[in-house]
Amino acid sequence: MSDDVKREPSINAAESKTPSMRGRSRRGNRETPESPSTDGGEGRSEKAIGRTSDTHDTGESDGPIVPRKRANKAGRPAAESVEGSGSTKGNVSQTAARRTRSRASVSIGLVGVREAARRGKDVRFTALLHHITPQLLEASFYELKRWASPGVDGVRWQGYAEGLADRIADLHGRVHRGAYRAKPSRRAWIAKPDGRSRPLGIAALEDKIVQQATKTVLAQIYEEDFLGFSYGFRPGRGAHDGLDALSVGLERRKVNWVLDADIRGFFDTIDHGWLLKFLEHRIADRRVLRLIRKWLRAGISEDGTWSKTDVGTPQGAVISPLLANVYLHYVFDLWVDQWRRRHARGDVIVVRYADDFVMGFQHRSDAERFLHDLGKRFDQFGLSLNPEKTRLIEFGRYAAERRKRRGSGRPKTFDFLGFTHYGAKTRKGDFTIKRKTAAARLRATLRAIQVQLQRRMHAPVAAQGQWLRRVMQGWYNYHAVPGNGRCLSQFRTAVGRLWHHVLWRRSQRTRPSMWKWVARLIRRWFPATRILHPYPNRRFAVTHPR
Q: For a pLDDT cut of 70, what percent of the chain falls above it?
């Protein structure tokens, strides 16, 4: 046994409310896919935007779409066995932690941590802090966004880079002596597609560095524990991987009802006590737990006023996505996996991305019972479903036919990760899932572009064109999925009209000649409208080979 680990019994306080937390069967979890690691970007402004999909990911993985029971026949169809931990080798480089500015590497010691976590699911790690080395802190510094807003310390990435070696050595010494003190997060607000605002907590730069290093260490453990249907903020997994899994599950499994759910104010309602108990199932290093307590209790600073935080973890903090996944792993993932094995009469599929999840049920009775049981489960841990965003709808290959017989109209649609999902038919008449950009997301993006164009009204036309090209290409990179061509064209046309209006306001040209000029500018600067993503079933077959 490694010096980093020690076998100890699980903590009863957390285990009593979370069935099957230890000693769970991990059959079928031996695959270890090879996936490129993400850039470790901080923050959480949108769940989907900014998360690029791993189109050419060719590693193996356990299926994220799981029926209630195994198939009667021998064999293991893709996406139909027990979820794996979704482990990847993206964070397990065999080289020492000598940092390059394009990609962080992981020390050989962390490789041992991951191997120990893979071998023993009940192992508790008693010595982890020594893995936070000056080399890892420096690598974590380069993982941060260089132009991110500063925290309460006012220190930016470029300023901290001056004399970096001395700063990192001092920070490393304070962390290991226990002299490191977390600063409160600076409150900021960003607009949501529905017109409301989402609170963000911007951490101080040194807090970001230590959080990134700690996240790198803890990820070696929890990437071996997380289930296959969890996709949010994980190395080698992105929003499009979750979207692919959902589409394949809805097409291949017996799904007649869809539960589209969202947890109300999840990041603001995480119970600190339960979170720490869940962490103690695997982490026995009190120094690491003390670091996490410091970040949880650092508080929020808004307009110079400090406020205490008894619950929640700030959206925008580097460590927050990992802590959120740990919390939902014990509160939701393990419980759902066990519920469908014990109580469901038909097929049940689930895909979760952060605090948003979609489930498919073969029988309505299963869906209604699950929704009732889920409410009671969440009550035990201080969570609740958002009634405005939680719906149970009739959906699937037979929904249109059944609703037509009843005179109920067309089947309803649901939104997930920025796309509206609806049933359709292929040219051969087979049932398929199609996706288009959610209307609220499209309107919000156009409003944001309009505001920015007005601010850039008197900038050179070439500068405006370059900026619009970057914005539109980024939007295409996420939304250019098969079947969404009409929305892509609508987006291009709408942006062209916005640009025409801004140029017309500052120009003396007549409108007919103005349109000809803007049309030439659009051809010059706007990226071509084309589909950039493969069909979900094709990419899913590559990322989840049989």
A: 79
